[in-house]
Amino acid sequence: MKNIIYKIMLSIVLVLAIGCKEKPTNEVEGTHKTKNENIVELTEAQLAQTEISIGKVKKRKIGHEITVNGVIDVPPQNNISVTVPYGGFLKQTTMLSGTRLKKGQIIASVENPEFIEFQRAYLEALANNEYLKADFERQETLNKEEVTSTKVFQKAKSSYLTNKANIQALESKLRLIGINPLSVKNGKIASVINVYSPINGIVREVYINRGKYFNPQDVLMDITNASDLHVELKVYENDIHLIRVGQRIRFRLANAPDTWMEAKVFLIGNNVRNDRSITIHGHLKEENEALLPGMFINANIEVEAVEQYAIPEEAIVRFEGKHYIFTSLGKRKEGVQMMHDYEMLEIIKGNEEENFVAFTFEDPSQNVSKMDVVLKDAFTLLAKAKNSEEEGHGH
Asked: Which parts pass through the membrane (predicted)?
């Protein structure tokens, strides 16, 4: 009985073995033996409808960057607060925030009765000068001849020199408020003076309106010389040791995130604030009229540059929180059709620069130098791969 059971079992094993060996295959030359959800295939016709571009990945110098925030600023000497000595009433101004100015341009007219008093005192001092000078010279001659006392001579001399100093002081006052002493000498008395722009620049803010009285210490407006704008960045303590003069800064405005501009580190602060940060200043590579002092910016400071494999940003796709690229597996014939195969490989993104991204493979055994990579229109392949999954295909 045992022998019979043994023979039956042996027969079954042999039948199964022969069946497996002789089982016909449905695979044809050039098809995949196993299903792989990361493999995408396109026909010649499908490929012709895309903008897919294949190429080798090259090494580029990609800098390691620190991301920081800051503002557009100007050196203190390029910020001018316009004031008028002795104050007055603002008679006229056409200035608005953002108005561009040239040096010497009239920016306001100011009226003050005190200006008339200065001119009157100046003319009076000029009138006295001729008499006091003549009296001084006469007393000097008489004193030499011992006709008058030294005391009388010294008094005449003192009166003359005091009046002369008064004339010089009044001339300085007149020039300070913008009145030419020569015009006053010629009889032109002005109660209104013009205020001129001391620099080429931009009006940042106007603080006073027409007809309002202001004191000497009051600021009429702020003007900025925008020809020497720079970026002012805040770098925190952990990254301070990486900063060097001459390093490249890439920055963009908060309201224009796609437009990058460049600057270069020229000054590193040496005072650590309470929030454990220091200030970094960078010179602009190129002037840009769209930049204004006080604008908020996002910036990257390139602290080192390393040669790495880098790929165009558009060659990278994102799916379920991970990043991928596609490599070309070549083409094959399937029936009468020519098929093009691509494999989706997971990568780890590195630093970005000028629309190129440094990367490494999630699988360290992958060798990018031996691959042909999809450099353009990778999203088409991602869409094809995920559509195929939803339809139940393996590739």
From this structure: none
* pLDDT score of 62 more than 90: no
CB 286 within 8 A of CB 260: no
Q: Which two tokens stand for residue 10?
A: 């042996």
Range 79-224: architecture per CATH: Beta Barrel (2.40)
Q: C-alpha angle 290/295/300, rounded to 5°?
A: 95
**Three-class SS state of 26:** coil
CATH topology of domain 64-76+225-304: Elongation Factor Tu (Ef-tu); domain 3 (2.40.30)
Rounded to whole angstroms, the Cα distance separating 313 from 333 reads 32
**Whole-number Cα distances in Å, 121 to 158, 179, 247:** 19, 14, 60
Taking the C-alpha atoms of residue 203 and residue 221, their distance in angstroms, rounded to an integer, is 7
Residue 138 carries which side chain, given as an amino acid letter? R
The CATH classification number of 39-60+308-390 equals 2.40.420.20
What digits encode the pLDDT tens for the residues 149-184?
888 888 989 999 999 999 999 999 999 888 999 999
Distance between CA atoms of residues 232 and 188, nearest Å: 49
Three-state SS at 299: strand
Predicted TM-score (pTM) of this structure: 0.53
Residue 103: is it exposed, middle or buried by C-beta count within 10 angstroms (0-12/13-18/19+)? exposed
Q: Helix, strand, coil % (nearest 5) of the chain?
A: 30, 35, 35
